[in-house]
Amino acid sequence: MSISLYELFLVSIIGQCIFLIFAIQYIPKKHTGANRIIQYLLVIYCVFLFERALGHEFDIDFLRRYSNFINTLYLLIGPFVYTYIRRLFFYKNGNYQLAYYHYLPALFYVGYCFLHIYYYDSIKDYKSYFNTLLFWNDIIFFISISAYLFISNRLLNYYKKNEEQELSFNQTIIKYVEIMLICLWVYMIFWLLGIIERFVIKLPIDIRMIWDISCLIFGIQIYIVGFYNLKHPEVFKIRFPSKNGDMSKRKNKLDENEISKIQNLVDVFFKEEKGYRRPELSLAILANEINTTTNKLSWVLNNIYKKTFYELVNEYRVEDFSQRINENAHKEFTLISIAYEVGFNSKSTFYKAFKEVKKITPSEYIKQVENL
């Protein structure tokens, strides 16, 4: 048994994969439902990488007879990726499950695998049979994964679009999920090239190289998954889009008395209680504090204040920060420590929000104050 450097590299990635599967179990404040799906995906990736690294060591007849069971896992990747994003980004979706029919293709394929084993010895033209099998496998798996990646992208775009409506900060987790989906899209591009190279026209790139690159993409994704799940365990969620539409977009407005009541409570929360200093503040938390619903609060912010939740909260934070600078607090404390005191939870969110409100950087603002 001889193992090349590339195969040894894949084996090392498998070891990392196995480590992450167990390490994710001990993440503090973990999102159990979402991380469970990540563990399932890591197991799938581990199996694929193992087959690529050491599959040639098994008897060819054994692989032809039983390896289709491994192919079933391709039909689970799409549903698992979508479920992971749904559980990760939307509250009340922590244990979200896709309807059973999403998994029927995988179940039917398992049934085919048993039929394949039963009739295997009676196959006369192996070459023709396996060429047909490989072609339809590639087409079906490509369509399945691509379809779920498409709706997963739509879900991520919805989250990015509505994040400022419900959160007062930006999250690096979005970049992680974007990278994860990009990795999978790149994988599907190479998969399509593989179909073309094998069944349509010979390409300058060899099919074996395509497979190797695909496996490397899986490996890269595993490290990304591990890094962000271990370093950024906490994720702040928003509401899942309602079938009835967002109340903030409805034509019918709230009663004038209710609008006034909500507006007064919001003003008290920010101006008197300094609630904006809570770094984890979200639309759901504020709605709970003033005893109203997120839909009603969102409507008031969008139609009365004419601001997103992100804009309103960070305007108060920036003004609080500016007041402290005017009082020379920056001569005793660092800018970031002051930013954290007024409610910002990251350097990037602070600088972005300050420039949006003041149209200049914090350093430029300090120079203006000192030159007065």
From TrEMBL:
SMART domains: HTH_ARAC (SM00342). Gene3D superfamilies: Homeodomain-like (1.10.10.60). It comes from the Bacteria. InterPro entries: Homeodomain-like_sf, HTH_AraC. Residues 260-368 form the HTH araC/xylS-type domain. Keywords: DNA-binding, Membrane, Transcription, Transcription regulation, Transmembrane, Transmembrane helix. PROSITE patterns: HTH_ARAC_FAMILY_2. It holds the Pfam family HTH_18. The chain crosses the membrane at residues 6-25, 37-54, 66-86, 98-119, 139-156, 176-196, 208-230. This is Helix-turn-helix domain-containing protein.
